Amino acid sequence: MMGPDHCTSQMRPDVQGFYEPVTGSIAYILTDPSSRRCVLIDPVLELDPLCGRIGTGQADRLLAEVAARGLEIDWIIDTHPHADHLSAAGYLQARTGAPTATGAEVVKVQKLWQAIYDLDDDLPTDGSQWDRLLDDGDRIQVGTLPVQALHCPGHTLASITLLAGDVAFIHDTLFMPDYGTARCDFPGGDADALWTSIERILALPGETRLFTGHDYRPNDRPAIWQSTVAEQKRTNVHLCRHPDRASFVTMRRERDKGLSLPRLMLLALQVNMAGGRLPPPSPNGRRFLRFPLDPALHG
Questions:
Q1: Rounded mean pLDDT, 26-46
Q2: What does 52-117 look like in DSSP terms, one character per residue?
Q3: Is 35 exposed, middle or buried (0-12, 13-18, 19+ CB in 10 A)?
Q4: CA dihedral for 131, 151, 3, 6, sign (positive or negative)
């Protein structure tokens, strides 16, 4: 596993977060101020499971902001196949033509869930749904800003952190310090791997700005999504109470046993493993999502 390259840490890109209250998700626009080029990170497509209605409000907010600021989109990136919401990457690519990317280990997630959904050949498991798969240490360019992918498994097999200048998009590894760390009980998840990934993130400079992918607003406080490496080291409730690998892994595994599956997980993953694309229409013109009964889902 490669270490992060700090050579661009003096660059200070612009970051805007867009909070989605139903799932507590945050999508981001990362911008290189010197070129007005940007990347969209973890965009959200809404789904009402009671009526099967898809909504594009959050994704359209991103597009409206890009247009208002006169930005050009270089990439659309998902940090992993999300279990709690549908990715809007496919919708946004259709609207903008921008290329999509995700972590290279997504092919392992595809193979796991192809069997759970009994998709056979309906789901290619080679990652071809994205324009680029990012291995550990790979870089993409956003204007003059290099963005580096760090493989950070634990929550999923395919999770990546995106490092750009003095910021890191850490999604489901560390949450805000008053909420702790991410669950690891889905297929392919591993609490020991998550500890290693957290150590890797916390090895970044203390002033590094960390942007998480969810905020669940403990004690009904306002939604927030930015911290620093120094703040996480000092105040993260899980890391302060469990400061070594053995204690943390034990805590994480015990805690995960009591968690319910995310409400949209079984619907969302089949879309997100396909690069945020909805299933193709059936002969009657309608689209359908599968819902496996009694699946074995805990890792």
A1: 97
A2: TEEE-HHHHHHHHHHHHHT-EEEEEE-SS--SSSEE-HHHHHHHH---EEEETTHHHHHHHHHHHH
A3: middle
A4: positive
pLDDT score of 7 more than 90: no
Report how far residue 254's alpha carbon sits from residue 244's, in angstroms, rounded to the nearest whole number: 16
Task: Report d(CA 229, CA 9) in Å as an integer.
Answer: 13
pLDDT single digits (tens) 208-260 = 999 999 999 999 999 999 999 999 999 999 999 999 999 999 999 999 999 99
For 80-124, the pLDDT digits (tens) are 999 999 999 999 999 999 999 999 999 999 999 888 888 877 789
- Residue carrying the six token digits 């003095």: 166
Whether 3 shows a pLDDT value over 80: the answer reads no
Is residue 156 a contact partner of residue 46, using CB atoms and an 8 Å limit? no
> How far is residue 151's CA from residue 177's CA, in Å, rounded to a whole number?
22
Place of tokens 């056979």: 120
Contact (Cβ atoms closer than 8 angstroms) between residue 168 and residue 147: no
89 vs 217: CA distance, rounded Å = 26
At 5, the pLDDT band (50, 70, 90 cuts) reads: low
Closest CA to 83 of 257, 217, 272, 290: 272
Q: How many whole angstroms separate alpha carbon 212 and alpha carbon 169? A: 6
How many Å apart are CA 6 and CA 259, to the nearest integer? 37
Tokens of 261: 């599956």
